[in-house]
C-alpha cells in the first residue's frame, strides 16, 4: 500500500514525465516543420550511429591489409567487386571500413574542441559582461589580440612546438576558437544584467556567482548551443585540414583528413581514395550546418519560419 504522504511525490513525478514527453514531442514537431532541420537531423543521426557502432558496421578491420587487392576500384567500376564496396587504398585496406572508423575521430575532436572553446568563452563572456569596468576592458583587449592573429597560423605554430596528437589538437582548436563565444555571450549579458530579475536577485543579497549561474547562464544557453553547433562544423574541417598537412591526427589512428592526404598521391590512378573521405567530410559538415541553422531559427524570436 502507498500512503497518502507517498502519493504526492508519485503524482508529481507522473506530471513531470508527462511534461517532459510533451516537450520532446513539441520539439520533434518543430523539427519536422523545417526541411533543412530534418535533413540535418537525419544526417547527424546516421553519422553518430555509424561512429557508435563502427565495429559492427565495418566489413573489415580498418588496419587489415589485403596485399593482393591493393588499390582496388569501387564495385561499380571495371575490376571492382562487392567484396570491397568503395575499393581499397595503397596498402590494401578496405576504404569503407576506414571511412566508418574515421567518423569517430571527427566527432570526438569536434565535440571536445567546442566543449573546451565553449567553457573558456562562456566563462569569460559571463564575467566580462556582468562585472564590466576594467575587467571587461582587459578581457576585450585579450579578445582583440586573438582576433588579430589568424587562427590557422596560431594553430600551426602551437602544433609545431607541442607536436601533433589527438589531445593536443583538441586543446589547440579549443583555445583558438573561444573568442566568438566570449563576444556573443558578453553582449547578451550586458543586456540581461539590467533586467528586473537580476536587480531583484541583487536586492535580496544573492551572490554574484549565483546570479551568473542561476539567472544569466540559463538565458544565454540557447545562444551558446547555436554557436556550438555551427562552430563544430568549422572544427571538423579544421581537424581534417591539419591532419591533411600532417599536423593533426597521426597514424595508425584513422582520420578523414589523413585519408585525404594519402589519396592525393593517387588522384590520377585511383580518385576514390581522396573523393570518398572528402564526401564524408562534406556531408557531415552540411548536416551540422543545417541543424545549426534550424536551432538559430528556433531561438530567434524574429524568425517567422516556424
Task: Please describe the topology of this protein.
Layout (H helix, E strand, L loop, with lengths): L3 H30 L1 H18 L1 H4 L37 H37 L1 H16 L2 H12 L3 H10 L3 H14 L3 H8 L4 H37 L11 H8 L8 H28 L7
Helix pairs in contact: 2-4, 2-12, 4-5, 4-7, 4-8, 4-10, 6-7, 8-10, 9-10, 10-11, 10-12, 11-12
Explain what you see.
With 306 residues, this protein is an all-alpha fold. The protein has two domains: 1-32; 34-299, MetI-like fold. It contains twelve helices and no strands. The chain has helices at residues 4-33, 35-52, 54-57, 95-131, 133-148, 151-162, 166-175, 179-192, 196-203, 208-244, 256-263, 272-299. The protein is elongated. The two termini are 48 Å apart. Residues 1-8, 10-16 and 302-306 have low confidence and may be disordered.
Mean pLDDT: 83
CATH class of the largest domain: Mainly Alpha
The biggest sheet, with number of strands, parallel, antiparallel or mixed sense and barrel status, is: none
Helical region count?
12
CATH superfamily of the largest domain: MetI-like
Overall domain count: 2
- The CATH architecture of the largest domain can be named as Orthogonal Bundle
In helices, the fraction of residues equals over 70%
Low-confidence stretches: 1-8, 10-16, 302-306
Rg result = 24 Å
Which overall shape is indicated by the principal axes computed on the Cα atoms? elongated
Q: Could you tell me the CATH topology label of the largest domain.
A: MetI-like fold
What is the number of E strands?
A: 0
Distance between termini?
48 Å
Q: Could you give the order of the helices and strands?
A: HHHHHHHHHHHH
SS-based structural class? Answer: mainly alpha
Strand content: under 5%
Amino acid at each position: 500500500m502507498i500512503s497518502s504522504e507517498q502519493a504526492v511525490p508519485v503524482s508529481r513525478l507522473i506530471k513531470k514525465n508527462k511534461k517532459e514527453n510533451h516537450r520532446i514531442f513539441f520539439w520533434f514537431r518543430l523539427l519536422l516543420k523545417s526541411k533543412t532541420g530534418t535533413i540535418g537531423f537525419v544526417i547527424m543521426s546516421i553519422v553518430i550511429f555509424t561512429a557508435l557502432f563502427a565495429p559492427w558496421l565495418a566489413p573489415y578491420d580498418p588496419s587489415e591489409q589485403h596485399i593482393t587487392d591493393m588499390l582496388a576500384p569501387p564495385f561499380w567500376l571495371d575490376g571492382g567487386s562487392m567484396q570491397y564496396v568503395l575499393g581499397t587504398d595503397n596498402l590494401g585496406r578496405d576504404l569503407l571500413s576506414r571511412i566508418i572508423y574515421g567518423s569517430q575521430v571527427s566527432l570526438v575532436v569536434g565535440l571536445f574542441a567546442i566543449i573546451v572553446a565553449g567553457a573558456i568563452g562562456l566563462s569569460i563572456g559571463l564575467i566580462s559582461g556582468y562585472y564590466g569596468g576594467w575587467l571587461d576592458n582587459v578581457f576585450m583587449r585579450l579578445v582583440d589580440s586573438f582576433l588579430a592573429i589568424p587562427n590557422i597560423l596560431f594553430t600551426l605554430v602551437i602544433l609545431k612546438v607541442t607536436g601533433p596528437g589527438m589531445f593536443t589538437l583538441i586543446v589547440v582548436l579549443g583555445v583558438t576558437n573561444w573568442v566568438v563565444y566570449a563576444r556573443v555571450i558578453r553582449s547578451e549579458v550586458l543586456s540581461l544584467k539590467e533586467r528586473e530579475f537580476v536587480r531583484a536577485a541583487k536586492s535580496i543579497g544573492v551572490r554574484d556567482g549565483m546570479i551568473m549561474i542561476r539567472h544569466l547562464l540559463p538565458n544565454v544557453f540557447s545562444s551558446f548551443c547555436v554557436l556550438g553547433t555551427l562552430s563544430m562544423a568549422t572544427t571538423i574541417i579544421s581537424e581534417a585540414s591539419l591532419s591533411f598537412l600532417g599536423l593533426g591526427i597521426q597514424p595508425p589512428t584513422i582520420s578523414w583528413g589523413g585519408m585525404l592526404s594519402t589519396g592525393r598521391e593517387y588522384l590520377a590512378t585511383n580518385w576514390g581514395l581522396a573523393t570518398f573521405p572528402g564526401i564524408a567530410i562534406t556531408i557531415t559538415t552540411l548536416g551540422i550546418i543545417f541543424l545549426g541553422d534550424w536551432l538559430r531559427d528556433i531561438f530567434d524570436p524574429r524568425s517567422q519560419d516556424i
